[in-house]
Amino acid sequence: MSTIRVPEADAAGWRCACCDCDLVLAPVELEYMGSHFSVELPACPQCGAVLVPEPLALGKMAEVEKLLEDK
Amino acid sequence: MAMDQKELRQWEARCIQEEMPRCTAACPLHVDARAVCGHVAEGRVNDAWAVLVRTMPLPSVLARICDGPCRTACLRGEFGGGIDVAALERFCARAATKSPRMAPLPRRKGNAAVLGGGFAGLCAAWDLARKGFSVTLYGPRPAGRLAAPTDADGELAAALAHELETMAKLGVRFEDGAAPGVAADDAAGAARWLSDRSAPGDAGPDAAPDTFDAVFADPEAVPAALHGLGPADPVSLGTLAPGVFSGDTGSGVPASPVALAALGRRAAASVERFAQKASLTAGREHEGPVPTRLYTNPAGIERAAPAPEPEGGHTEETAAREAARCLNCQCLESVKNCAYLAHYGAYPKVYARRIYNNASIVMGTRHANEMINSCMLCGLCTELCPTNFDMAGLCLMARRDMVQRGKMPPSAHEFALRDMAFANGPSCALARPAPDGGRTELLFFPGCQLTASDPGGAEAAYAALRAARPGVGLLLRCCGAPARWAGREDLFAESLEALRTDWRALDAPPIATACPTCAATLRQALPEAEILPVWGLLGAAKTGEATESIAEGAGTAKSSGIAGAGAPLAVHDPCAARHDEPARTAVRGLLAGLGVATVEPRLTGKHTECCGFGGLLAEANPPLAAKAAARRAAAADQDFVTYCAMCRDMLARAGKRALHVFDLLYPRHADPAARPAPGHSERRENRARLKDRLLRELWREPGAPPAPHEAVRVRCTEEAAQRMEERRILISDVQKTLLHARESGAALVRADATSGRRLAAYRPVSVTYWVDYEPEGDGFLVHNAWSHRMRILGLDGREGRGASTAGDGPRTYGIGARASDQRGNE
Ligand code: SF4
Ligand code: SF4
Ligand code: SF4
Ligand SMILES: [Zn+2]
To answer: Domains plus CATH for chain A?
Structure first.
């Protein structure tokens, strides 16, 4: 599974409250309707907490969700 | 079950939009005169000419000599005089500067001979060449009437020469001499020649004879008297000799040039069928002039006088004027009156095919899903359509099929189905006999949309019913319509079963509903119950002498201080009341009893329009729902009054002043027509609070204890509240997310630490919610919220913290994306 890079994913400016460390871009596995993707998203290097930024959720992610629902 | 080919054809046949307009149906060649008129009216002469060239044999000739039998059939004939298409065709033939190229076909179909160059013979040869036959035409051309010298300036002769040249280019071989044995008045010789369909070849008397697969004898040049094979069959033009066709059917040679052309065309079609060993007669009822089922609504058509053809032919200007009189005959009766049908750019016949194709897709994108889920299932089309096309039935069938095959997009109806589950769940559902006990004589069923939109109205109506009669019980729940609309018959059956159990436990009395959709749904699904619309009962309670006391606190429109009281209101019939004439009448009676003057909007009664909510359109396609609501809002200048809570709110959201009948019966607002429609969260709260209040006040029972997340205090900025409404994120979703963040401590914070803003995520079931918030006192201030359906499984190659088993899948990661509280999903 090759990792997809999206411009909406920006790790700058966020920290994980639990682990008290900066988020960094890391490949994250996503799933919908049985399809799996690896997407580079801001994540906590310690606990693996992931951020899905608003523009990504409402933009590309929503598009892909609709596409998969119509497959 | 998905429809099969046969069912598709039945659906398609129901829609008459693709039937020919009267002109085309009357034209022996089915020339698209409507398109010709459209092009000429817009000055596109070459396009008009291309239409003619595509359909006509020898177009330069026929366009100049057609006698125009279409004119007497033309619908415009009833409004000023039929369109003179023949004159427009003459104009096109002269004025066109470009002709579409005619590509010669590979000649693989066989050999055909045409005996005689009359117009029918020429047309047959033209068509045969175009079909890919090798054609030999015997005899002088033109023969018959076309040879008569009627063409003083030689225009027609030049056109004929031009088309003969075209035919030569198409590969037609001309033999100037008559066919062997035919020219000499030798019937027996002709018959012999025709019987074995072979003529001595060009190459000399010793060469092998040319043999033809089929022969056509032109009726003018070679009548039956000459070929001796008897009169031709009027359908196939066949004679006593197989493969020999004749234009002489024994009823005389047609005088009309276009009829002669059609005769030639029929012959060519027969020759082709003969060569392919197909039936010569099957399925030929569509050839030549035919009746048409196309309906064109004459309402609003104004008379327009013809623009006569000037001496010497039309000019561009006179032609355009005459062509512009064409009514562009179409049906589109339903499409003209349905925002949904208009939105997808076609008409039911096309949609039926799209739906069929959508179901047939094995791999690839199902493009019609959204279209199928956007019909309001309102039934207006069936009422308006001259052949009663049932788009609602078609779409509902398609939805059920999608659900059955697991192809229904989960996001399409999930929010509405969750709402239905909530209305039927412990927070909202309630079944009780009358508070003072006793047998239940009548069961009030306000419907879950009324209790969501106007709980006070539902409560007042219940009080009025109880005051007017003994034994009025209460049933708060959803009728199941959303499940039905979503194609979820499983959920519908489940919901109905629970409803039936409640109803039986309450002595199975008549049910009085305050929602037309509930009435229609229950009448159909619970036939053992008597379903009464509540309007008649409330009207009686309101005006009856003995019950005057119950009207206390309720006013009439005049006394209620409603802005514009006394001005007439437009009655909006909900689409669910389309077939409920008694309810429609009862409401009007009730309004009259209240002293309210009413008017009817454009489209009313059984022709009423949907508000945009029906069929879950507002879920599957919110922008189109808004469009439908706006369209309905424009159907009357007056304020609307209606008797469906959902219609009231949809119209209000479209910016239309609208009242529910309960606003008049039980006035509680200064200007109820302007009362805003409650949002998704408020609607849920309204239902839950109503149940809680009624339980405590009427039945002296405690309400249900609140779920843990309900204790989370949340305030939303105006912007956040608006976004949540649009994005269908409920306050309770936010509360659950914040509760989870508080319990787990999982959240993201701003790196610069200048603000207290935090970000938390949580996935209760199938949607992950993100909340951007800051602590505020002992609660939270919400700045933003968004969601997605995609699941975060975690960092590649390692497990993230918070891994847990969630509602819909094996592992769920993300910041604390753990379903810690399964029971509080709603
Ligand atoms: S009005 Fe136009 S479309 Fe209708 S029948 Fe006449 S020519 Fe044809
Ligand atoms: S060919 Fe003749 S009958 Fe046919 S549409 Fe044209 S004018 Fe009318
Ligand atoms: S929305 Fe109503 S009128 Fe339009 S196609 Fe559907 S059922 Fe027919
Ligand atoms: Zn962390």
So the answer is: 3-70 (3.10.20)
